[in-house]
Design goal:
Length: 244
Amino acid sequence: MRIAVLSDVHANLEALTEVERAIAERRVDLVASLGDVVGYGASPNECCDIVRRLAKVALVGNHDAAVSGRMDYGFYYDAARQALDWTAGVLRPANRDWLAGLPYADRLGEVGFSHGSPLRPESFDYILAREQAAELLPVVETLPRVTFIGHSHLTKAFALRAGSQALEVSGHRFRMRPGYRYVVTVGAVGQPRDYDNRACFVVHDTEEATVEYVRVPYDIETAAQRIFAARVAPNFGRRLFLGV
């Protein structure tokens, strides 16, 4: 099976449209969305509509949970709160209800999905480095062979084995080694933060045991102009050009 895994669309219609095209070219069997379809960007309804149609597996992210009434976002910084308030105000009821009903995590055999750390998926904890990946070692035997996560907007992969350390895996494509469990951060479709401004998603081939990061150029200018025209902080548009 070939699985396309995407995350953190953040209401960026231009990025998601190009990613959908790229997924179609790769003839995948299933698409999984790891959450944060909305937030920051200016096209929340359009992006919800696409993900609802495209993804067979769909999870809730922290921004999705915030705008659908599943969490308090009062502790977010001002610009993020304002963007969430704006999103909640324009989101259609059908899309709000869809976000409100999404699970925190899912699993298909030896492939797991979570927005943040799978240790407590409802807490949306980050895995940014080996030290945080190592927190999974006490429960590593309960994990599937590979768990895909989002949330950080980074492209990080870690190999875990009981009785050993967490190892960081490098490269845009790698093959999973026998005896290890993997945690793979799939990057962001709509707001990359790894200094590459192209949209990002992952293709996983379960038979070949490979993971590949796919980068997709898109019309950043139009995406940014939509943000500038909406009542959200302009920095959410400016950072798209930099990939930070």
